[in-house]
Amino acid sequence: MPHVAFGNISPISKPVDDETGVASIVKHDHITRTTTEVNVPAEWEMSEAFTTLTHPNGIWGNHSDAPPAWVECPDWPELEAALRGYYGCAGRPKKWDHEIGEPAASAAASKEGN
Amino acid sequence: MAKTNNGIDMIARGLGQAVAGFTGTSTGTSATTMTDSGASFTASSGGPPETGGMVGWVVQCGTVYGVIVKNSATVITVDYWHTVASPGGAAASTPGATTAYMIIPGAYPAAYLGLSVATRTIAAADPFLTNDGTTVSEIWNASGGLNRAFAAFAHTIGTTTYTLTKTFTTTVSDPSSSTVHRVGAFEHGVTAAPSTTTTGIMLTETNLAADAILTNNGSDQLVVTYTGTIS
Questions:
Q1: Cβ A16–B206 below 8 Å, yes or no?
Q2: Using alpha carbons only, what angle is made at residue B58 by residues B54 and B64, rounded to the nearest 5 degrees?
Q3: Integer angstrom CA distances of residue B131 from A79, A96, B64, B147, B205
Q4: Is residue B2's pLDDT more than 60?
Q5: A87-95: long-range contacts at Cβ-Cβ below 8 A with a sequence spacing of 24 or more?
Q6: What is the ipTM metric for this complex?
């Protein structure tokens, strides 16, 4: 199964209310450099993979609110080229250390209370 | 993301390894079963769908594998036989009647998304997508484009969520109009209309933010992203 990796400098999550289906946007300010990894089903055609990755309701739109810093998909060069062209970015830089701090104190306290 | 009772049990049993694995050589196989007449598997029960036992574990038989839907002491029933490289693709060939097998201890990923027009209030006790609590109301049509399908997994390192995303595209085999209201995440795939016994374990069910009205024109698309939270 093709594996796609994105450099993510502004990660978000969109947890959904079960009944209303409405998503809230959680911005992860404590993370300033990370990687989003995607496992694409092998049976998908190029058009489905590209749409699923780039659609506003799709994968990238649910993981970041900024364009990817880089894209890498060595398993599927055509998809890799299409994504780099769409987002206007290059491949993974030689150095990409994750910068992940501690979540906000309020979030940590809430988690401990669960 | 409403976890179901069966889904919560699946997570707990999988992470904690409720039942050990098993190895042997089959004494019979079919498109959805593997028999070892000398085995003593911990049997599943209850339901439908059945739970406990080896449900949700993976049986590798030769070069293919299946996700266990139910089992007795000697017969394993799987969703279908999968190829490793394309778990959501077409069913693989049935392994030979006498094939070495291994049941791998641990739960299989719940990475299949199924759609429903059901509008009944979501309940943790729902064992499948349903509009009355007893019958399956998941969309399924032969050669349809809205059938349960393996989704793309994504996770951002450092966050507590992951997503499953699938672009559904209608075909002429779908109903003339479908008002999709809900999505379920499943541990098992299906190759025919899911029944109460073949539906497998539903981890979660979630309503869409807005109903999606799709026609069978072969081009209507619905991009569904399910967000799972690790907490």
A1: yes
A2: 140
A3: 40, 48, 35, 17, 12
A4: yes
A5: A89/A7, A92/A5, A92/A7, A93/A7
A6: 0.91
CA–CA distance, B105 with B21 (Å, rounded to integer): 5
Nearest residue in chain A measured CA to CA from B225: A58
Which of B223, B48, B222, B50 has the alpha carbon at shortest distance from B136? B48
Nearest-CB residue to B157 (from A19, A35, A52): A35
B197 Cβ partners below 8 Å, 6+ apart?
Answer: B47, B48, B49, B50, B69, B70
SS (H, E, C) chain B: CEECHHHHHHHHHHHHCCCCCEEEECCEECCCEEECCCCCCCCCECCCCCECCCCCCEEEECCEEEEEEEECCCEEEECCCEECCCCCCCCCCCCCCCCEEEEECCCCCCCEEEEECCCCCCCCCCCCCCCCCCCCCECCCCCCCCCCEECEEEEECCCCEEEEEEEEECCCCCCCEEEEEEEEEECCCCCCCCCCCCCCCEEEEEEEEEEEEEECCCCCEEEEEEEEECC
A16 inside 8 A of chain B by CB: yes
Tokens encoding B82: 């999968």
State which H helix or E strand residue A6 sits in.
Answer: strand A3-8
The reply to whether B62 touches chain A by the CB within 8 Å rule is no
The residue type at A35: T
Contact A16 B223 (CB under 8 A): no
pTM, to two decimals: 0.94
Element (H, E) at A26: strand A26-27
Task: Tell me the average pLDDT across B99-114.
Answer: 96
**Which tens digits make up the pLDDT trace of B122-165?**
999 999 999 999 999 999 999 999 999 999 999 999 999 999 99
Which of B72, B56, B65 shows the shortest CA–CA distance to B16? B56
**With bands split at pLDDT 50, 70 and 90, how would you rate the model's confidence at A23?**
confident
pLDDT value for A111:
43
